[in-house]
TrEMBL record:
<dbReference type="InterPro" id="IPR025714">
    <property type="entry name" value="Methyltranfer_dom"/>
</dbReference>
<dbReference type="Pfam" id="PF13679">
    <property type="entry name" value="Methyltransf_32"/>
</dbReference>
<dbReference type="InterPro" id="IPR029063">
    <property type="entry name" value="SAM-dependent_MTases_sf"/>
</dbReference>
<feature type="domain" description="Methyltransferase">
    <location>
        <begin position="122"/>
        <end position="288"/>
    </location>
</feature>
<protein>
    <recommendedName>
        <fullName>Methyltransferase domain-containing protein</fullName>
    </recommendedName>
</protein>
<dbReference type="InterPro" id="IPR052220">
    <property type="entry name" value="METTL25"/>
</dbReference>
Amino acid sequence: MAEEFKYSCNTASETLQWIHAIINFIAPYRYFLDAHVVNFFKDRLWEPVDKEWMDCLRKESVGNLLRIPSGVVQDHWPGSLKEFILTLRSLSLSREQADFQEFSGMHIASLSNVLAQGMNHKKKHEVEALSALVSLVAKQVGARTVVDVGAGQGYLAQVLAFDYQLSVIAIDACSHHGKITDARAERIRKHYAAKMRKNCSEQREFSVPKTVTCRVLSSDTLRALSNSPVENDHAGNQHLSQKCSVSQPSRLAEDILPSRSYSDSTLVIAGLHACGDLSVTMLRVSARMTMNVHGLLHLSDWTFLECDKAKAVISVGCCYNLLSEEAIDIADSCCGFPVSQGVKSAGVMLDKSARDLACQSADRWRGLDEHAGLHNFELHALRAAFQIVLFRHYPNILRECPTIGRQGKALRRQQNQRILESNLHHGGPSESGEARESVSFLHEYSSIQSSKNCKSRAVDGYSLFVKFCESGLGRLHLPHLEDTAYSAVWRESESYFELIGPYWSLRAALGPVLETLILLDRLLLLQEYDSDLEASLLPIFNPVLSPRNMAIIAKKIRK
């Protein structure tokens, strides 16, 4: 029986209590957090794990193993194993999509075909939900302008502008994205204008997003924006000059806004899956723009002018593996994790392997059928065995090419997406870095698998391993080895193949609680800054369709 959820994050003290509970619980399992499944055989990663757990799980069905990350246990499992899994579940944020019918004034409307053009099912779902939420928050705080940070091709910005009639500034680091956004917005404007003419409707002006090209990707870049004037090119696109020095202090009041058109506007800052540090940067800017009522604020040698323009921020993050992380003893560091003083004081650090793990999607793994799950474990096993081949015969390659095997990422995503859409009418697979690392040379493996029936695969595992290794070596432009080299690795690793599924599942069970820790750290950052900020976490997407579904919402409530 699952434990009752007992943690809350309504206040800074409650959030910090939850954070400490997570830190204390995961401390003995650091061997999971720091591990790379690709080194499963080489480093004998199963040895630190409770032997009773592994003996039990090596006999379990693939389906039951895939449910472990979601906190599902079986009655016959050892008590300590059940306690481990259920405690992780109790420490994790609930990912079930919020019932928006409970939000007064919020209605999620289906996008028209013209606005949805180019969006896949996942993106459409995200834009529909987030645009409705942004519109509601904008009404609540009395804002008419939205700054879409990391706007990409402008899907969110255009829905906010055309469907919700908000003034939108779409900021992205890539000028090409700005051009795509402008071209797409113009097509949409022409479509609606033609539709009004056809229906003899009264002509009205459309709110079209303004695009700004600005590399708001790090705190250092933000420092450089204060002396960067907004320039208009011949097409009307707005760009921030890149000629400023990163050593200059940032004013933040007008740094990322076209000062003439929007100088009198209050605004909401929004970001849909702003990558890595960008989501954290959004929160830092928003908190600092609202926290000081006494004029200038001096922090980390930055000088800020008070800015009352930003009334709210809505941030949906992603790509935790790309967060920057600095030593916790560096005062006022602006890394991506940890960001709150509470977590910094606790001395917790998550390296890239652990942050990769936070990107796992328990809901998606649970939705895979047994064949797809077994396929996943086989890929992990073959890749881990191939790692021994490289370690013994080409050790320099491991130092020079730590991310070998990413060539199969896209194919694996497409393959799992077809499985999930068939069974659940939802989108693709987990996109964790660990999964990408472990599933090497998928294209070759899938080709080999498709050419064999189930019986021959079981009988000819060694032949499959040899082909997998030769394919991998070929991709690395390395010569093939003698058969004895492959057979030696196969003999010593084959008997442990059945352990990789249990190990992977137990390690993946830590993913949701690690993501919870990262998100609570961000929430605590806002709660620490100012009691006049109302901050919360809300799951706004279907977690199967969009695993990074937690939005951080902060509103300025000072009158």
